[in-house]
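Reopening: histidine kinase still failing for me.
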Amino acid sequence: MEKKSFSFFEKNIYERHLKDIFERKEKEIENLRISSKLRQNDLENLLTIWTHQIKTPLSSISLISEREENYDIKRELIRIDDYIASILSFIKLGQDSLDYSFKSFSIERLIKDIVKRYRSFFIHKNLKLILDIEDENIISDSKWLGLVLEQVLFNAIKYTDKGFIKISYHNSILKIEDSGIGIKKEDLKNINKFGFSGDSDKRDANSTGIGLFLVNDILKKLGYEYKIDSKEKEGTVFSINLKKSGIIEN
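Support: Ran it again with your exact input. Result attached.
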């Protein structure tokens, strides 16, 4: 049987179609949530339908890309999947309670699992990955903390065209450092606001403007302090203090 491959033209049409669906559903859900017209059961039903609409074609395309070893499509699928996860998390954060599950886990394992997910991006952009991790078990919510790390790491990858990304963990401080384009001083105070798009986001037409908004909200709910140090054209360092309210196991 002849293998069917995606041309560049077909791939772009598919990506634009998914992006249009995503933006339409995002606006629909947010408008309903803000107007308080969406009951909890309605919300769950809408999310189920929306997730099915998006993830079913994504799964099919993912299988094809694996068979053909088409890493360009694979990277785009990861991007789209991240956008879906972002908006679903945004909806969950708007609810009265989160599905917290505090358990003991290895911080090194969490970091390495997340890095593995984005390995094709490092290869594609020829970025050097530096891991400097003092492993220990912490008690926290690995799902929500993992989402934070995914958002921060993906931002670092997006805005670093050459050089390195370093992830370190020592004395309960987790840092993600990059040699990317950095953030303007006047933009730093606004980057965690919903929908904010500074100069860096103008390079990414697919940016949703909710990544760092989610990060800020999740870390507040988990009780962790964080800070962002950045210089334009030099890079950014995102630091999280996991000792503030989390429990470090000896």
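Confidence is low (pLDDT under 50) at residues 1-11. If you still see a failure, please send the error message rather than a screenshot.
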